[in-house]
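look at this stuff:

>
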Amino acid sequence: MLIYVYLFIIILVMFLLVRFKRFNLLFSVIFTLIIIYFLLNPKVSIQSAKSGLVIFINSVFPTLFPFLVVCNMLIFYDGIVVYSKILGPFLCTPLRLSNQCSLALTISILCGYPLGAKYSTKLYEDGFIQEEEYTRLLNIASNTGPLFIIGSVATSMFGNTYWGYLMLFANYISCFIMSLIISPSKSKSINIGNSKDTTYNFGSALKNSLEDATKTCINVAGFVIIFSVIISVLKNNYVFNSFILFLSSLLKVNTEILNSLFLGMTEITNGCYLLSTTKINIVMKLSLASFLCSFSGASIIAQVHSFTYKHSCFSMGKYFYRKLLQGIISFIITYFICTINLDTLSVFNNAMATSKIFIIPFMILLILSLFIYTLRTLFDRS
Protein backbone atom coordinates (compact mmCIF):
# COMPACT_ATOMS: atom_id res chain seq x y z
CA MET A 1 0.00 0.00 0.00
CA LEU A 2 2.89 2.33 0.81
CA ILE A 3 4.28 1.99 -2.72
CA TYR A 4 1.00 3.27 -4.15
CA VAL A 5 1.31 6.35 -1.95
CA TYR A 6 4.83 6.95 -3.30
CA LEU A 7 3.61 6.49 -6.85
CA PHE A 8 0.78 8.94 -6.28
CA ILE A 9 3.18 11.54 -4.85
CA ILE A 10 5.62 11.13 -7.79
CA ILE A 11 2.84 11.41 -10.39
CA LEU A 12 1.33 14.41 -8.57
CA VAL A 13 4.67 16.23 -8.41
CA MET A 14 5.31 15.60 -12.12
CA PHE A 15 1.79 16.71 -13.00
CA LEU A 16 2.23 19.96 -11.07
CA LEU A 17 5.58 20.66 -12.70
CA VAL A 18 4.04 20.13 -16.13
CA ARG A 19 0.92 22.08 -15.18
CA PHE A 20 2.95 25.14 -14.20
CA LYS A 21 5.36 24.65 -17.12
CA ARG A 22 8.40 24.07 -14.92
CA PHE A 23 9.94 21.79 -17.53
CA ASN A 24 13.55 22.60 -16.66
CA LEU A 25 12.92 21.62 -13.05
CA LEU A 26 11.06 18.48 -14.15
CA PHE A 27 13.90 17.27 -16.36
CA SER A 28 16.48 18.24 -13.76
CA VAL A 29 14.71 16.04 -11.21
CA ILE A 30 14.40 13.14 -13.68
CA PHE A 31 18.06 13.28 -14.74
CA THR A 32 19.20 13.62 -11.12
CA LEU A 33 17.29 10.45 -10.26
CA ILE A 34 18.90 8.67 -13.22
CA ILE A 35 22.39 9.75 -12.09
CA ILE A 36 21.65 8.46 -8.58
CA TYR A 37 20.49 5.17 -10.11
CA PHE A 38 23.75 4.92 -12.11
CA LEU A 39 25.79 5.46 -8.95
CA LEU A 40 23.80 2.87 -7.01
CA ASN A 41 23.75 0.31 -9.86
CA PRO A 42 26.97 0.83 -11.86
CA LYS A 43 27.16 -2.80 -13.01
CA VAL A 44 23.67 -2.77 -14.56
CA SER A 45 24.33 0.60 -16.25
CA ILE A 46 27.66 -0.49 -17.75
CA GLN A 47 26.25 -3.84 -18.89
CA SER A 48 23.24 -2.25 -20.58
CA ALA A 49 25.47 0.29 -22.37
CA LYS A 50 27.68 -2.55 -23.61
CA SER A 51 24.58 -4.44 -24.73
CA GLY A 52 23.38 -1.41 -26.72
CA LEU A 53 26.80 -1.05 -28.34
CA VAL A 54 26.86 -4.74 -29.30
CA ILE A 55 23.37 -4.44 -30.84
CA PHE A 56 24.51 -1.43 -32.89
CA ILE A 57 27.77 -3.03 -34.08
CA ASN A 58 26.27 -6.43 -34.92
CA SER A 59 22.84 -5.46 -36.26
CA VAL A 60 22.56 -1.76 -37.12
CA PHE A 61 25.95 -0.59 -38.39
CA PRO A 62 26.57 -3.33 -41.04
CA THR A 63 23.35 -2.43 -42.87
CA LEU A 64 23.05 1.27 -42.06
CA PHE A 65 26.55 2.53 -42.94
CA PRO A 66 26.93 1.14 -46.50
CA PHE A 67 23.31 2.02 -47.28
CA LEU A 68 23.91 5.62 -46.19
CA VAL A 69 27.08 5.91 -48.27
CA VAL A 70 25.38 4.57 -51.41
CA CYS A 71 22.29 6.80 -50.91
CA ASN A 72 24.48 9.89 -50.46
CA MET A 73 26.39 9.03 -53.64
CA LEU A 74 23.08 8.56 -55.42
CA ILE A 75 22.01 12.08 -54.41
CA PHE A 76 25.32 13.55 -55.59
CA TYR A 77 24.73 12.08 -59.05
CA ASP A 78 21.17 13.38 -59.49
CA GLY A 79 19.38 10.39 -58.02
CA ILE A 80 16.49 12.61 -56.90
CA VAL A 81 15.77 13.63 -60.50
CA VAL A 82 16.12 10.08 -61.82
CA TYR A 83 13.89 8.56 -59.13
CA SER A 84 11.25 11.26 -59.50
CA LYS A 85 10.94 10.54 -63.22
CA ILE A 86 11.03 6.73 -63.05
CA LEU A 87 9.43 5.82 -59.70
CA GLY A 88 7.59 9.04 -58.90
CA PRO A 89 4.35 8.28 -60.79
CA PHE A 90 4.09 4.79 -59.25
CA LEU A 91 5.14 5.53 -55.65
CA CYS A 92 3.81 9.04 -55.14
CA THR A 93 0.46 8.99 -56.97
CA PRO A 94 -1.41 6.79 -54.46
CA LEU A 95 0.05 8.79 -51.57
CA ARG A 96 -0.86 12.20 -53.07
CA LEU A 97 2.74 13.37 -53.01
CA SER A 98 4.81 15.11 -55.66
CA ASN A 99 7.20 12.93 -57.67
CA GLN A 100 10.21 14.49 -55.93
CA CYS A 101 9.33 12.50 -52.80
CA SER A 102 10.03 9.16 -54.49
CA LEU A 103 13.64 8.89 -53.26
CA ALA A 104 12.68 9.34 -49.58
CA LEU A 105 9.80 6.87 -50.00
CA THR A 106 12.06 4.28 -51.64
CA ILE A 107 14.68 4.57 -48.91
CA SER A 108 12.01 4.34 -46.22
CA ILE A 109 10.53 1.22 -47.84
CA LEU A 110 13.88 -0.54 -48.20
CA CYS A 111 15.64 0.46 -45.00
CA GLY A 112 12.98 1.83 -42.62
CA TYR A 113 13.54 4.07 -39.60
CA PRO A 114 15.07 6.64 -39.38
CA LEU A 115 16.39 7.10 -42.92
CA GLY A 116 13.01 8.11 -44.31
CA ALA A 117 13.09 11.16 -42.04
CA LYS A 118 16.72 11.91 -42.88
CA TYR A 119 16.16 12.00 -46.63
CA SER A 120 12.79 13.75 -46.34
CA THR A 121 14.68 16.50 -44.51
CA LYS A 122 17.36 16.42 -47.20
CA LEU A 123 14.71 17.00 -49.90
CA TYR A 124 13.31 19.96 -47.95
CA GLU A 125 16.69 21.52 -47.20
CA ASP A 126 17.74 21.22 -50.86
CA GLY A 127 14.52 22.94 -51.98
CA PHE A 128 12.87 20.02 -53.76
CA ILE A 129 9.73 20.13 -51.59
CA GLN A 130 8.03 22.85 -49.55
CA GLU A 131 7.04 23.07 -45.87
CA GLU A 132 3.55 21.56 -46.04
CA GLU A 133 4.65 18.59 -48.10
CA TYR A 134 7.74 18.10 -45.94
CA THR A 135 5.73 17.76 -42.71
CA ARG A 136 3.31 15.40 -44.47
CA LEU A 137 6.09 13.32 -46.01
CA LEU A 138 7.72 12.81 -42.61
CA ASN A 139 4.70 10.84 -41.43
CA ILE A 140 4.32 8.89 -44.67
CA ALA A 141 7.98 8.04 -45.38
CA SER A 142 8.36 6.68 -41.87
CA ASN A 143 8.16 2.90 -41.79
CA THR A 144 9.73 -0.13 -40.20
CA GLY A 145 12.12 -1.85 -42.59
CA PRO A 146 11.05 -5.20 -44.11
CA LEU A 147 14.17 -6.97 -42.80
CA PHE A 148 13.34 -5.93 -39.23
CA ILE A 149 9.69 -6.99 -39.39
CA ILE A 150 10.17 -10.22 -41.35
CA GLY A 151 13.64 -11.19 -40.13
CA SER A 152 14.03 -9.94 -36.57
CA VAL A 153 10.43 -9.86 -35.31
CA ALA A 154 8.57 -12.60 -37.21
CA THR A 155 11.32 -15.15 -37.89
CA SER A 156 13.66 -14.73 -34.91
CA MET A 157 11.20 -13.70 -32.17
CA PHE A 158 7.86 -15.24 -33.20
CA GLY A 159 9.31 -18.20 -35.08
CA ASN A 160 7.12 -17.81 -38.18
CA THR A 161 8.25 -15.91 -41.27
CA TYR A 162 4.73 -15.74 -42.76
CA TRP A 163 3.45 -13.58 -39.92
CA GLY A 164 6.06 -11.01 -40.89
CA TYR A 165 4.35 -10.48 -44.23
CA LEU A 166 1.09 -9.80 -42.44
CA MET A 167 2.70 -7.15 -40.23
CA LEU A 168 4.56 -5.69 -43.21
CA PHE A 169 1.29 -5.46 -45.15
CA ALA A 170 -0.44 -3.77 -42.18
CA ASN A 171 2.49 -1.37 -41.82
CA TYR A 172 2.30 -0.18 -45.44
CA ILE A 173 -1.49 -0.06 -45.61
CA SER A 174 -1.62 1.98 -42.38
CA CYS A 175 0.90 4.34 -43.99
CA PHE A 176 -1.34 4.63 -47.07
CA ILE A 177 -4.39 5.35 -44.87
CA MET A 178 -2.40 8.07 -43.09
CA SER A 179 -1.73 9.66 -46.50
CA LEU A 180 -5.52 9.85 -46.96
CA ILE A 181 -6.10 11.28 -43.48
CA ILE A 182 -3.40 13.96 -43.66
CA SER A 183 -4.45 16.66 -46.11
CA PRO A 184 -2.11 17.05 -49.09
CA SER A 185 -0.03 20.15 -49.62
CA LYS A 186 -1.83 23.08 -51.28
CA SER A 187 1.42 24.57 -52.53
CA LYS A 188 2.51 23.82 -56.07
CA SER A 189 5.19 21.20 -56.56
CA ILE A 190 8.58 22.43 -57.64
CA ASN A 191 9.73 21.56 -61.15
CA ILE A 192 13.14 20.02 -60.71
CA GLY A 193 13.84 19.82 -64.42
CA ASN A 194 16.35 17.50 -66.04
CA SER A 195 19.55 15.98 -64.71
CA LYS A 196 22.50 18.31 -64.33
CA ASP A 197 25.22 18.29 -66.96
CA THR A 198 27.92 18.88 -64.33
CA THR A 199 29.44 15.80 -62.74
CA TYR A 200 30.89 15.81 -59.24
CA ASN A 201 34.43 14.64 -58.67
CA PHE A 202 34.05 11.01 -57.56
CA GLY A 203 36.64 11.27 -54.79
CA SER A 204 35.03 14.41 -53.39
CA ALA A 205 31.54 12.89 -53.54
CA LEU A 206 32.74 9.71 -51.83
CA LYS A 207 34.54 11.69 -49.10
CA ASN A 208 31.43 13.78 -48.34
CA SER A 209 29.23 10.69 -48.42
CA LEU A 210 31.50 8.86 -45.98
CA GLU A 211 31.61 11.84 -43.62
CA ASP A 212 27.83 12.22 -43.62
CA ALA A 213 27.29 8.46 -43.15
CA THR A 214 29.79 8.35 -40.28
CA LYS A 215 28.16 11.30 -38.52
CA THR A 216 24.68 9.77 -38.89
CA CYS A 217 25.86 6.37 -37.64
CA ILE A 218 27.50 7.92 -34.58
CA ASN A 219 24.24 9.72 -33.75
CA VAL A 220 22.21 6.53 -34.20
CA ALA A 221 24.72 4.59 -32.05
CA GLY A 222 24.27 7.17 -29.29
CA PHE A 223 20.48 6.75 -29.39
CA VAL A 224 20.70 2.94 -29.39
CA ILE A 225 23.07 2.91 -26.39
CA ILE A 226 21.23 5.49 -24.28
CA PHE A 227 17.84 3.88 -24.87
CA SER A 228 19.33 0.50 -24.05
CA VAL A 229 20.34 1.99 -20.70
CA ILE A 230 16.88 3.56 -20.22
CA ILE A 231 15.19 0.20 -20.93
CA SER A 232 17.51 -1.46 -18.41
CA VAL A 233 16.70 1.20 -15.81
CA LEU A 234 12.96 0.65 -16.33
CA LYS A 235 13.21 -3.14 -16.25
CA ASN A 236 15.12 -3.13 -12.98
CA ASN A 237 13.21 -0.30 -11.37
CA TYR A 238 10.92 -1.15 -8.46
CA VAL A 239 8.80 1.96 -8.97
CA PHE A 240 8.19 1.15 -12.65
CA ASN A 241 7.30 -2.48 -11.91
CA SER A 242 4.96 -1.38 -9.13
CA PHE A 243 3.33 1.13 -11.48
CA ILE A 244 2.73 -1.66 -14.01
CA LEU A 245 1.15 -3.83 -11.30
CA PHE A 246 -1.04 -0.92 -10.21
CA LEU A 247 -2.22 -0.28 -13.78
CA SER A 248 -2.80 -3.97 -14.32
CA SER A 249 -5.08 -4.23 -11.29
CA LEU A 250 -6.83 -0.97 -12.19
CA LEU A 251 -7.45 -1.77 -15.88
CA LYS A 252 -7.74 -5.55 -15.46
CA VAL A 253 -5.08 -6.06 -18.14
CA ASN A 254 -2.33 -8.68 -18.16
CA THR A 255 0.89 -7.28 -16.61
CA GLU A 256 2.96 -8.88 -19.40
CA ILE A 257 1.00 -6.96 -22.04
CA LEU A 258 1.36 -3.65 -20.21
CA ASN A 259 5.07 -4.22 -19.60
CA SER A 260 5.65 -5.09 -23.26
CA LEU A 261 3.68 -2.05 -24.45
CA PHE A 262 5.39 0.45 -22.16
CA LEU A 263 8.88 -0.84 -22.92
CA GLY A 264 7.99 -1.24 -26.62
CA MET A 265 6.79 2.35 -26.83
CA THR A 266 10.22 3.27 -25.50
CA GLU A 267 12.18 0.95 -27.81
CA ILE A 268 10.43 -1.38 -30.28
CA THR A 269 12.97 -4.24 -30.34
CA ASN A 270 12.65 -4.90 -26.62
CA GLY A 271 8.87 -4.53 -26.76
CA CYS A 272 8.48 -7.02 -29.63
CA TYR A 273 10.77 -9.51 -27.91
CA LEU A 274 8.79 -9.28 -24.66
CA LEU A 275 5.55 -9.74 -26.62
CA SER A 276 6.91 -12.90 -28.21
CA THR A 277 7.46 -14.39 -24.72
CA THR A 278 4.06 -13.46 -23.29
CA LYS A 279 1.40 -16.13 -22.70
CA ILE A 280 -1.39 -14.55 -24.74
CA ASN A 281 -3.06 -15.68 -27.97
CA ILE A 282 -1.13 -15.21 -31.20
CA VAL A 283 -3.70 -12.84 -32.71
CA MET A 284 -3.20 -10.32 -29.90
CA LYS A 285 0.58 -10.82 -30.00
CA LEU A 286 0.78 -10.03 -33.71
CA SER A 287 -1.63 -7.10 -33.44
CA LEU A 288 0.33 -5.49 -30.59
CA ALA A 289 3.65 -6.10 -32.37
CA SER A 290 2.18 -4.50 -35.49
CA PHE A 291 1.15 -1.49 -33.39
CA LEU A 292 4.67 -1.12 -32.00
CA CYS A 293 6.30 -1.40 -35.43
CA SER A 294 4.06 1.30 -36.92
CA PHE A 295 4.25 3.58 -33.88
CA SER A 296 8.07 3.18 -33.76
CA GLY A 297 8.69 4.19 -30.11
CA ALA A 298 10.47 6.99 -28.27
CA SER A 299 13.93 5.92 -29.48
CA ILE A 300 13.01 6.27 -33.17
CA ILE A 301 11.00 9.45 -32.58
CA ALA A 302 14.07 10.97 -30.89
CA GLN A 303 16.19 9.98 -33.89
CA VAL A 304 13.67 11.60 -36.24
CA HIS A 305 13.78 14.77 -34.14
CA SER A 306 17.59 14.82 -34.45
CA PHE A 307 17.11 15.38 -38.22
CA THR A 308 14.14 17.77 -38.04
CA TYR A 309 14.79 19.97 -34.97
CA LYS A 310 16.23 22.81 -37.07
CA HIS A 311 12.96 23.38 -38.91
CA SER A 312 10.20 25.24 -37.08
CA CYS A 313 7.55 23.94 -39.51
CA PHE A 314 7.93 20.48 -37.98
CA SER A 315 5.75 19.79 -34.92
CA MET A 316 6.94 16.94 -32.71
CA GLY A 317 3.52 16.82 -31.04
CA LYS A 318 1.72 16.31 -34.35
CA TYR A 319 4.26 13.73 -35.47
CA PHE A 320 3.84 11.78 -32.21
CA TYR A 321 0.04 11.72 -32.36
CA ARG A 322 0.06 10.77 -36.05
CA LYS A 323 2.45 7.89 -35.38
CA LEU A 324 0.21 6.81 -32.52
CA LEU A 325 -2.79 6.88 -34.87
CA GLN A 326 -0.87 4.91 -37.49
CA GLY A 327 -0.01 2.31 -34.85
CA ILE A 328 -3.68 1.96 -33.90
CA ILE A 329 -4.68 1.58 -37.57
CA SER A 330 -1.99 -1.08 -38.03
CA PHE A 331 -3.26 -2.89 -34.93
CA ILE A 332 -6.84 -2.92 -36.29
CA ILE A 333 -5.75 -4.18 -39.74
CA THR A 334 -3.65 -6.98 -38.26
CA TYR A 335 -6.34 -8.00 -35.79
CA PHE A 336 -9.01 -8.01 -38.50
CA ILE A 337 -7.00 -10.18 -40.90
CA CYS A 338 -5.91 -12.57 -38.15
CA THR A 339 -9.47 -12.92 -36.89
CA ILE A 340 -10.71 -13.88 -40.37
CA ASN A 341 -8.19 -16.65 -40.89
CA LEU A 342 -4.60 -16.73 -39.70
CA ASP A 343 -3.82 -19.85 -41.76
CA THR A 344 -4.23 -17.97 -45.05
CA LEU A 345 -0.90 -16.26 -44.41
CA SER A 346 0.98 -19.44 -45.33
CA VAL A 347 0.53 -18.90 -49.06
CA PHE A 348 4.10 -18.88 -50.29
CA ASN A 349 6.93 -21.29 -49.79
CA ASN A 350 9.30 -19.87 -47.15
CA ALA A 351 12.34 -19.72 -49.43
CA MET A 352 10.36 -18.15 -52.26
CA ALA A 353 8.80 -15.56 -49.96
CA THR A 354 12.10 -14.59 -48.36
CA SER A 355 13.68 -13.90 -51.75
CA LYS A 356 10.92 -11.40 -52.58
CA ILE A 357 10.97 -9.26 -49.43
CA PHE A 358 11.79 -6.04 -51.26
CA ILE A 359 9.29 -6.56 -54.10
CA ILE A 360 6.22 -6.63 -51.85
CA PRO A 361 6.09 -2.91 -50.87
CA PHE A 362 6.50 -1.81 -54.47
CA MET A 363 3.82 -4.24 -55.63
CA ILE A 364 1.41 -2.90 -53.00
CA LEU A 365 2.00 0.72 -54.05
CA LEU A 366 1.87 -0.19 -57.75
CA ILE A 367 -1.52 -1.88 -57.30
CA LEU A 368 -2.82 1.10 -55.31
CA SER A 369 -1.54 3.51 -57.96
CA LEU A 370 -3.25 1.60 -60.77
CA PHE A 371 -6.45 1.32 -58.73
CA ILE A 372 -6.59 5.08 -58.07
CA TYR A 373 -5.75 5.86 -61.71
CA THR A 374 -8.62 3.60 -62.83
CA LEU A 375 -11.05 5.28 -60.43
CA ARG A 376 -10.04 8.73 -61.66
CA THR A 377 -10.54 7.62 -65.27
CA LEU A 378 -13.97 6.14 -64.56
CA PHE A 379 -15.30 9.13 -62.62
CA ASP A 380 -13.60 11.91 -64.54
CA ARG A 381 -16.37 14.13 -65.93
CA SER A 382 -14.18 16.67 -67.62
User: Anything to note?
Assistant: Residues 344-360, 378-382 have pLDDT under 50 and may be disordered. The longest helix spans residues 42-76.
